Amino acid sequence: MAVTAAALGMGGVTAAHAADQPEVTYAGSVSDDLGTLQISARSAADITGITARLVSYASQTEVAEIGTQDFRLFSGTRQDGNWRTKKPLKLPEFGSYRIDVEVTDADGGHVLRQSAGDFAYYVVAEFGTLTVDRTAIDRDHRDVQVEGTLYGRWPTRQVKPLAARQVEITVDYWTQATVTTDAQGHFTASVRLDAAAPVQAVFRMDGGTPTVLYGESDPVQIGVDQIPTRFTSTVSSTDIDFGQPVTLSVKVEQKTADGWLPLAGYSGGVLFGPADAQTDLVGRFTTADDGTFTMDYTPWQGGHFQLALDTSEDPFLQAGTGTSDVVHVHRASKFTAFTATRSDTGQVHAEGLIDFPDGWTPAPIDVHIQYSPDGVNWSTLTTVEAHWGGSGNDFAADLDQSGAGHYRAVFDADDNFQSATSETVFVPAAA
Predict the structure, then answer these.
(1) How many CA atoms lie less than 13 Å away from 164 in the CB half-sphere?
(2) Angle made by CA atoms 419, 424, 429, in degrees to the nearest 5
(3) Is the residue at 217 inside a domain?
(4) Residue 3's pLDDT band (boundaries 50, 70, 90)?
(5) Which of 37, 40, 186, 324 is the most exposed place for a label (fewest CB within 10 A)?
(6) This prediction's pTM
């Protein structure tokens, strides 16, 4: 457990000494090893001597003197470094002690800094591995048994079980149970969860003897075994003309020991659109007693309904999603002009205009020129591409067809446009 310098009341750095004099920049306990004293100092010359004296705040008497021989350079250099005691200190009593520090350097520089910091000589709470009897809850099994052991780490680095101390068991960082450790520091507790959450054991200073500082276990994450849900959907039509509505019919179910059963009274939302483009909000739903709902919607583009179940009020249910069959929306297409005439060379010249009045235009616009000798059986003579010509999408073709017959233009339907067929024109045989 890390204990910050601020929490231990360590003193700050005093005003800078003259440039050629040693300076004590820190004095205090090592945060994760409270029995070890650390002194930080710097000077223009190598630091050759460090003496620290610990003074009891309670009695204002000196309880220990730690000399140069008791320190080792832990990091940095002898001109700017951190020294730590070679082993933890042994003091007669727990508590906080004032640190007075005296430093000398190789050039004879000397400084005595009183109240350079505080030495925290306390037991720190530690926990062994926290165990639980389940790592996930479900709707019928929400209680979790928690078990662990509370230890104290003495400033001498000795670790012992802490008996008869209170331990809080938190769920999602809120205390749910408080238990007392036995003679071996062991504790057990039962907590109840209503959602996924971390479970943790916490010790707070409880006024017992000796004084033990705060400690906490590693949290154990408890998950939720959620009940699977599913959507079953149908649409009234998978091909509609632009401007026509489509009806979505859905059944929402949950998986139980008895199979898939209706999920009544649950809400959610429905979107519509293609899988890889913009989607529009269709609306929200609440399922009936039989788990069903219906919606009418008039889409402006093709796509499918996207379904989502809202389970924010019931963490034991899966937030299921689903999609319907794809609905194709066909926009109108129509020929506004078509003619076919025989030229002086004997060829048939066909031309015309095609329009798409619902706002979209396909690309390319492929128009089939068809021929029938009897007006019943048709064959495609050629396919041409129509292009915008100022007053419409125009097309033309010259056909080597000498016999009399019927001619027309055809545009095939696709996923986004309706089919269109022009008027039929009869052309006599070549003279």
Answers:
(1) 4
(2) 140
(3) yes
(4) very low
(5) 186
(6) 0.70
Give yes or no: residues 288 and 348 share one domain: no
Residue 8 lies in a domain: no
Whether residues 99 and 150 fall in one domain: no
CATH number at residue 303: 2.60.40.730
From the CB of residue 247, how many other CB atoms can be counted at a distance below 10 Å?
12
Q: Is 212 helix (H, G, I), strand (E, B) or coil?
A: strand
Give the range of the structural domain holding residue 111, as residue numbers without chain letter: 23-121
Q: Which helix (H) or strand (E) element contains residue 167?
A: strand 166-171
148 shares a domain with 116: no
- Residue from 351, 430, 354 nearest 396 by CA: 351
Whether 360 and 374 share a structural domain? yes
pLDDT exceeds cutoff 90 at 17? no
**Residue at a domain's end among 195, 224, 253:** 224
Q: Domain boundary at 287, 309, 329, which?
A: 329
Is 47 a member of any domain? yes
**pLDDT tens for each residue of 251-261:** 999 999 999 99
The residues, ordered by sequence, that sit 6+ positions from 226 with a Cβ below 8 Å of its Cβ are 315, 316, 317, 318
The 8-class DSSP code of residue 138 comes to B
Percent of the chain with pLDDT over 90: 89
pLDDT greater than 90 at residue 397: yes
Tokens 């078509």, residue?
A: 338
> Integer distance in angstroms from the first to the last C-alpha of the chain?
107
Whether residue 18 is predicted with pLDDT greater than 60 in this model: the reply is no
Paired tokens of 352:
């015309």
1 assigned to some structural domain? no
Are 155 and 184 found together in one domain?
A: yes
27-30 contacts, C-beta under 8 A, 24 or more apart: 27/52, 27/99, 27/101, 27/113, 27/116, 27/117, 27/119, 28/99, 28/117, 28/118, 28/119, 28/120, 29/3, 29/118, 29/119, 29/120, 29/121, 30/84
CB distance 262 to 289 below 8 Å: yes
How confident is the model over 268-279, as pLDDT tens digits? 999 999 988 778
39 and 113 part of one domain: yes
The token pair at 67 is 């000399």
> Within this chain, do residues 291 and 340 fall inside the same structural domain, yes or no?
no
Structure token digits, residue 370 = 């068809």
Q: What is the mean pLDDT of the chain?
A: 93
Q: Do 188 and 273 have their domain in common?
A: no
Q: How many separate domains does the chain show?
A: 4
